[in-house]
Amino acid sequence: MYQLLLIGHGKFPSGVQSALHYLMGENQNISVLELVDGMTHIQFEEEIAKFLKDHSQVLVFADLTGGAPHQIAARIILESPSQEHFLISGMPLSVITELTMKFQYQEVKSLEAPMIIEQTLSECKDLMVNLAVESRGI
């Protein structure tokens, strides 16, 4: 079963985990690593590397594309021999909720994972709308 790892700046990942708990209940397969004041990038990198080493199937969600947590996780994953570690940047709650349901409550085969991630990202993009523009027909 895939583990979900929420990474990001400050307490944002804990906030996302709290929202997921509220929406979906307790889930022992969701973990958080936060880049907080006083933590070096090297310490953060070591924590991510250890988590990935300890879990063979992981979806990593980073808060900002191009931010330090994203860059650190991307480097570790790209250098990893595992084909079952995935990094999804940006953390819309809709994406995390959909992927959590699919990877935690459905049986996802390893070869299907990349396709399911891409399909979910595409579906969730369609859920984002600017209601002011939509209501004015612009």
From TrEMBL:
Record key words, sorted: Transferase
PROSITE patterns, sorted: PTS_EIIA_TYPE_4
The keyword Transferase belongs to this UniProt entry's keyword annotation: yes
Short name of any one Pfam family annotated for the protein: EIIA-man
Chain ranges of the PTS EIIA type-4 domain: 1-128
Protein's UniProt keywords contain Transferase: yes
Name of this chain's protein: PTS EIIA type-4 domain-containing protein
